[in-house]
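Appendix C. Worked example: Peroxiredoxin
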Amino acid sequence: MVVEVGEQAGYFSIPDQNGNTIRLSAFPGKRVVLSFHPLAWTRICAEQMKALEANRETFDALDAVALGISVDSVPCKRAWAGSLGIKKTRLLADFWPHGAVAQMYGVFDSQKGYSRRANVVVDEVGRIIFVAEYTATTVPDMQDVLDALRVPEKSRRAEERAPEI
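Step 2, the predicted output written as structure tokens:
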């Protein structure tokens, strides 16, 4: 089951394409976009990761950092990032234990052995504020993620307390 808005995000520590250990807790005061994709070297996943890189300055302006995550290995991610021209966006290798982060966030497809396509936004205090899952053949629209990042913290809190009618 995929994580839900309002839940505390699961913390992780996995390598990026350069072999640097990346921890969710390494971004204090920032919101973090976790962009799960099935596999490197596929057209739609490439478009998804290029969209993260293309929006890098916008993420920076919104005090956010975007991380691409799949079950591929570090050498695979490094070669793929180079082929795509990705220089600043971190592409994380959820390789071993196989898909552990995707499993933690409820987006791992155990039948296929890789994560489903999804975006999860974690706020400054480690709470999930946005979740969207996409079909395998759909490039996620980053506008939804950017809109979620633009909602101020005070407004998010007010929305969470608003009574249902």
